[in-house]
Structures are given as structure tokens and as C-alpha cells.
Design brief:
about 230 residues, alpha/beta, Collagenase (Catalytic Domain), 7-stranded mixed sheet, 3-stranded mixed sheet, 10 strands, about 25% strand, binds zinc ion
Length: about 230
């Protein structure tokens, strides 16, 4: 059976001062059965028996991201997501930035989204295997880019898998793509009210709405469920 079961392209119309449309792409594949996961735990990843394994995010900073933006990437794109995912899963989160490291940091991501995703998946899998990092549900390999992948596609992810690409064009795109990697979906996204109308991480971008920096309750449950039997 083809590894790629289905390919879903989701478009969001989004208007700023200039008209622009945003999209993220999801490749929907089921995560393999838990017993097919790599069980090894490298030294740096050891956890106590009673503590759940943290989420490890390897964030590859593409060379096209301006040096002036790099210092604020964690604060601008990750910190709210880390708070949310820690609250939802009870797991600690480690984000490790990888910079200036060809062929990862200069990967030619501008291509049709499925081709771009496949190329990144191949590269990042090599990185994972060369570094003896785990093949499991709690280790993710994310390429951060300065620009859209192509046209209106701002991110691409495969549901429940380890690899994705997220542009820094919107503040919630990192959390959106990481959400896909933890099986959150668009259908359960919401507009909520927190003093103003805001969109949850998995929601398409709508003019005039702010960011909630959280998942909807439905997506929180999906994420919890996905990780419930992970070590
Ligand atoms: Zn999406």
C-alpha cells in the first residue's frame, strides 16, 4: 500500500494590507502501531521511570531567515505553544535550534508542497538516523522558513508524523504544523473569545481575528489521545 494514503490541501483566505491567501497542507497518514516505534532512548533523552518523555522539537532554521530575526524566534513562535502543549499533555518541551547546517539549513523548499515535504522528510530522516535520535511520537523535526513553500502554502505537515515545514509568516503557523504532527485537525478548530475574537492554532486565518495561542478542546483531546500511550 502506498505510504501516502491521502493528500489534503487546505486554503485559507487572509487579508492584510495586501491581499494574500494562506494555506497549509496536511498529508494524512496513520501513525504506525506503537510496537513498531524505536524503543531506544539516547543518553540525553533519558527520563525517570515515572515521568513522561518530554516532547523534543528539532527546529532547523533555514538560511533564508534574516539574522536579525533569529534571536526572537523562540519568543515569537514557540513560547506560547510550549505553554499550551505542556498544559495539555503534562510533558516538558525541549526546542533545539539547528542553524547553519547544510544540507538542512539550505534545503530548497520552494516546490510543490508534496515534493517539498517529501524532500524534507528524506533529509530529516537522515538527520534523525545519523544522530541516533528516536523514531517515536514525541520527537519532531521542523524546518522553519522565511517564505511560503509555494504560492499560498505556508506550511506542510503529515498527520501524526515526525517531519514538517512551517514558515514564519504567521505567528501560529509553527503551533499549527506541530499540531498536525500531534494529530490535531482543522475540523475541530474554533473561534473563541478571550477579550477579543481569536482563532485557535488549527483554524484558518480570518481578517480581524487575533490568535488564541491554544488548541480547541476537541484538538486538545486528540493530542492527549495521540500521546496517551507514548512513553
Ligand atoms: Zn493545517
Amino acid at each position: 500500500m502506498s505510504k501516502l494514503i491521502s493528500f489534503i490541501l487546505c486554503l485559507t483566505i487572509f487579508q492584510l494590507t495586501t491581499q494574500m491567501s494562506l494555506a497549509t497542507t496536511v498529508m494524512d497518514r496513520p501513525w504506525p502501531a506503537a510496537n513498531s516505534e524505536t524503543l531506544m532512548t539516547p543518553k540525553d533523552f533519558s527520563t525517570t521511570a515515572i515521568e513522561k518523555r518530554p516532547l523534543f522539537v528539532f527546529a532547523f532554521v533555514h538560511d533564508d531567515i534574516p539574522a536579525s530575526a533569529i534571536d526572537s524566534i523562540f519568543h515569537s513562535y514557540f513560547s506560547d505553544w510550549v505553554k499550551e502543549i505542556t498544559a495539555v499533555t503534562g510533558r516538558r518541551v525541549s526546542v533545539e535550534f539547528v542553524r547553519n547546517m547544510p544540507p538542512y539549513s539550505n534545503y530548497s523548499y520552494k516546490a510543490a508542497s508534496d515534493i517539498s515535504y517529501r524532500g524534507w522528510e528524506r533529509l530529516a530522516r537522515n538527520y534523525r538516523d545519523e544522530k541516533n535520535l528516536p523514531h517515536n511520537r514525541t520527537t519532531k523535526f521542523l524546518l522553519l522558513t522565511n517564505s511560503a513553500i509555494i504560492n499560498n502554502v505556508l506550511g506542510v505537515a503529515s498527520s501524526g508524523q515526525q517531519f514538517d515545514i512551517a514558515s514564519l509568516i504567521g505567528k501560529q503557523i509553527v503551533g499549527h504544523e506541530l499540531g498536525h504532527m500531534l494529530t490535531a485537525n482543522h475540523d475541530l478548530s474554533e473561534v473563541q473569545y478571550n477579550g477579543w475574537w481569536c482563532e485557535t492554532f488549527m483554524r484558518d486565518v480570518t481578517p480581524g481575528l487575533s490568535n488564541c495561542y491554544r488548541y480547541s478542546d476537541g484538538n486538545r483531546e486528540l493530542i492527549k489521545s495521540f500521546l496517551s500511550d507514548a512513553p
